[in-house]
Design goal:
The chain contains two helices and three strands. A three-stranded parallel beta sheet has the order 1-2-3, with no helix packed on it. It is globular.
Length: 79
Amino acid sequence: LDIVFFGETVKGMDEALKAVGECDLLLAIGTSFTVYPVASLPEYKKPGCPFIIINKGRTAFDNSADLKIEEDINSVFPE
């Protein structure tokens, strides 16, 4: 188990930034994008990379997503 307190460095953030910048599809599931620096990851996607958000409730990136599914994760991905 690993936790990050406010003001602490996020382990793996450099790798996450690199992965987002190289991905062919950015899929965000179950996040409101309110806790930084991870909440800024969509800003680093390459131009033209499709961006899909699945979250019950609004997010800071709803207007920039190519597709927003405002549903509970369990209803989108049933067992």
